[in-house]
Amino acid sequence: MKHCPKCSRTYADERLNFCLDDGARLVDDFFNSQSPTMVFQTSELPTEYFQNQTSFQTEMPSIAVLPFANMSADVENEYFCDGLAEELLNALAKIEDLKVAARTSTFSFKDKNLNIGEIGRVLHVNSVLEGSVRKAENRLRIIVQLVNTQDGYQLWSERYDREMKDIFNVQDEITLAVVDALKVKLLSETKSAVLKRSTENTEAYELYLKGCFYRGKGGTESRKKAVEYFQQAIAADPNYAPAYAELSFSYKVLVGSGTLNPQEFSPKVEVMALKALELDDNLAEAHFALASFKQDGWQWQAAERSFKRAVELNPNLARAHVGYAGHLSRVRRHDEAIAEV
Question: Phi and psi for 99 in degrees, rounded to 5?
Fold first, then answer.
């Protein structure tokens, strides 16, 4: 255990050196509160301490993007906060030299009162991006900060006061600022993929974020709502590839659960996935949706090709890895399935 000599906050994570509240150097406690407080001199620290510090600092840059806090008066704007965080996560996930914690992992910390060091330890990441959003009609205030999980210090922070029409520029600015702060090399081809915009239509974008919000909640009713919002997003922008990909997979899940008639909707699963690929052949989520459809149809080789392509395009797309692992297990390649996850 450690505690802050200024604010008395205690920390269970032994790797933290500085208080996440006031930045003061932490003091080591021993065994229980009755023991005298001791402070190590540098020469007294065990060799393993320095080895652990070096290992943590030199490993591949890694990040967890936490759900952004909703500071708006309207609680319904939660979808926008979650969606913005997920869009940033997806953009960063396209960078091969950056390890990005999966959405299912990072969003499990939503509304949990854990400090940055504990989150870093659980997710095995050396940085965390967190923020807040205040949305009033077409005005936005977005505050973000990138924090080093090792010492609690800010690596970068910024406040954006913009209009909704500027949201795509804000996302690009945040993404590039994070990459710069983490000192990740971004080749021109990768940069183009990271900053690629699937739509310039803010109405379609907001509808898509609402669909993703309900998709993430799980459950039949939420999935049905997600389908409605993805359909509306497509109506607002018929060339919005991610909306087709998400609609395809949502249809697939609802067909599998018996909610939708397979004779009517199974063909639509494939049609939506193929439409997404027609619009953007480099969209990993579209290849994943098509792979899932092929797998359900026992088209093993076609499914494997699509799963592999999804993982190749986005090595950090967790559900593609999980889906591919499930496919490998189905065809009795269990060792490969285990390695995939």
Answer: -85, 125
* Burial grade of 263 (CB within 10 A; 0-12, 13-18, 19 or more): exposed
Letter for the amino acid at 92? L
Phi, psi of 124 (to 5 degrees): 60, 50
Query: With pLDDT > 90 as the criterion, what percentage of the chain qualifies?
Result: 62
Domain spanning 62-194: CATH 3.60.15.10: no
Nearest one of 310, 62, 92, 61 to 194, comparing CA atoms = 92
DSSP 110: T
Structure tokens at 88: 């940033």
Report the C-alpha gap between 182 and 67 in whole angstroms. Answer: 20
Of the chain, the end-to-end C-alpha distance in Å amounts to 33
What angle, 0 to 180 degrees and rounded to 10, lies between the N-to-C axes of helices 241-256 and 202-217?
A: 30
Phi–psi pair at 152, nearest 5 degrees: 80, 0
Q: Where, residue-wise, is CATH 1.25.40.10 in the chain?
A: 202-340
User: Rounded to 10 degrees, what is the CA torsion of 249, 255, 259, 265?
Assistant: 90
Note the pLDDT tens digit of each residue in 110-151. 888 788 899 999 999 999 999 999 998 889 999 999 999 998
* Helix H or strand E segment including 134: strand 127-136
pLDDT of residue 5: 66
Dig out the tokens for 306 from the structure.
Answer: 């699509």
On whether the CB atoms of residues 222 and 229 are closer than 8 A, the answer is no
* Exposure class string for 135-155: b at 16+ Cβ within 10 A, else e: beeeebebbbbbbbbbbbeeb
Residue ranges matching CATH 3.40.50.10070 in the chain: 62-194
Q: Is 70 helix (H, G, I), strand (E, B) or coil?
A: strand
Statement: residue 52 has pLDDT above 50: no
Fold of 202-340: 1.25.40
For residue 104, what pLDDT band results from cuts at 50, 70 and 90? confident
Helix/strand/coil for 27: strand
In one-letter notation, the amino acid at residue 208 is Y
The C-alpha torsion from 159 through 164 and 169 to 172, rounded to 10°, is 70
- How far is the C-alpha of 284 from the C-alpha of 323, rounded, in Å? 13
